[in-house]
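worker-3 :: picked Tyrosine protein phosphatase 1
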Amino acid sequence: MMTSISFLQLLDALPGRPVRELLADTFRDESERDYQRVRRALEQPDGDVSLSDSQRGRNYDLNRYSDMLPFNHNRVRLEGKHDYINASHIVLPEQISSNRYIATQGPLPHSVADFWRMVWEQRVPAIVMLARTHEAGRRKCEAYWPVAVGTELVAGDTTVVLCSERPLDDHPEVIVRRLELRHGAHSGPARTVTQLHFIGWPDERVPESPLPVLRLIRELRETVAPAADTPVIVHCSAGVGRTGTFIVIDAALDYFARSPDYPGDLVADTFRSLRSQRTTMVQTLIQYMLCYQTIAFMLNDKK
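worker-3 :: tokens ->
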């Protein structure tokens, strides 16, 4: 069914129970394939798809969760001897989007310096944060930025200054922070990085409305406007559920800014690509369905 209709036709049929059940089947089938892929990667560390780098020596303690790990082939490699960080380069199929991403976990207390090394070395212009530092009484992410405007945080060789902080107009659950970075003996001008922090997205669940997500994406793509050759960092706590969901939606909006329709299922194709690049991306069925619902909302709003 999915290959015989266009994506817009699929969205029109979305309220129907048979279509929703078919989408749920797709999610479950891909999740089973992902589970088997991860199992093989752990059992065969020398195979074509491997997670072995995440298990070596000190690297193991740099993972927030023991089952949310980057594949060897596309993990971000830091410069120098200790090159491991739990982060993955994400490149989508060319026909879907040319946006570049780094999907990563929320930094741990002992990996904040590595996080800022990655930001500096990858020349990242923007960070999308989709988690609170604490949720349901548990620490989900270290506060890796200065706490007050005008103050600085020193993380390894990187000095981070918080230049400004403001809620996004009409959406106070999105906080925009402008940060300046200096690194080591670098004598050039400080680099500016924008952090877009969405605090209204519960873990393993979905926001109450798609509007803040869409407004955050507009701020990212129109105001920050990262260059095509620079990746945007996206993270939540594990860097898979909310992170993957955001990337699907952002990439779809990029696609529909250039094209009127898509042959087949755009969400499913993007989802499969993400799962092949980082484990458990788009973690729950409700997050998977949010992708369709948010894209449908956006497209209907443009009519």
